[in-house]
Amino acid sequence: MSKTSFSPSRADSSPLAGSGTLAWLGVMVLLWGLSWPATKLALDSVPPLWLAAIRFGSAALCLFAFLAVRGSLAFPPRADWPIVASMGLLQMMVFTGLGMIAMTHVDTSRAVLLAYTTPLWGVIAGWLLFRNAPTRWQLLALAVGLTGIGLICSPWEMDWAAPGAAMGAVFLVIGAISWSVVILHIKRHRWTASPLSLAPWQMLIATVPLAGFALALEGSPAAIPFDLRLLELLFFIGPVATSACFVISAEHGRRISSFAMSTFTLGVPLVGILASILLLGNRLSPLFAAGLCLILVGMALAAAATTRRST
């Protein structure tokens, strides 16, 4: 389960990219999507906050080593500390911590879909925080997407009487809203260092409080059964689906337009839902399928409307 915000770049105006870039981004989307069922499986053995801390801690170590080998490891400049704190605390700590707690109560298909409603909440956040009144297209995107969310979370599709079901859905929406605020910050931040060079510091800032909360609320990690299967899952979730995918997004995401990247990431919930059906036995009801289509259409409309507005 991994979410990475894409920063504006000098190459952002280019809508086209080579086949190699598209192939790498396809790998990234596939790995991100597969990380959701992998996370669900790991949660059978690891408490959610400890899993979040292990994920970002292991990913941070990998990126620190990667940057050190490249000779580009450096302490973040003072001008970039606001974005380091924003992404580390809101996007990584809040989104991932709440998301993993939610996944202990909500099926993976619903979790990945609600988590990726970020573009919809970005319209509302921009309106409330920066007085950017939404355009007609953004309002349409919001109406379509929220209708889909309503179907997914309706009493006809979701068992509200199940323990933690309502809390899980609320936590996922709060996480998506937190990520949307970070995206707005990213668009307005003037970058001094590259996003890749700041990534391990963001992950470190997320890891420390996550580990503290985990120790206080979930106890010592000594009770976690670290067998070979679990270690394989943790390796995939952290070093592969988090650090490696962050490198791919930083190196190749800047070579295509923001709209193209937003459209690309629509594949993540699709891969996550399909993988959850195949690997975890999740069922896709007609009502869920209708909500899925509405949310994806709303996200695509929101991305298109935002790109048109900025242009």
TrEMBL record:
Family, per entry: Belongs to the EamA transporter family.
Pfam family, one: EamA
Superkingdom as given in the UniProt entry: Bacteria
This protein's GO CC annotations: membrane
SUPFAM superfamilies assigned: Multidrug resistance efflux transporter EmrE
Alphabetized InterPro entries for the sequence: AA-Vitamin_Transporters, EamA_dom, EmrE-like
Protein name according to UniProt: DMT family transporter
Keywords recorded for this protein, A-Z: Membrane, Transmembrane, Transmembrane helix
Species assigned in the record: Noviherbaspirillum sedimenti
Topology in membrane: Multi-pass membrane protein
Transmembrane segment boundaries: 21-38, 50-69, 81-105, 111-130, 137-158, 164-186, 198-217, 229-248, 260-281, 287-306
Coiled-coil ranges (or none): none
Localization per Swiss-Prot or TrEMBL: Membrane
Domain EamA per the UniProt entry, residue ranges: 24-152, 167-302
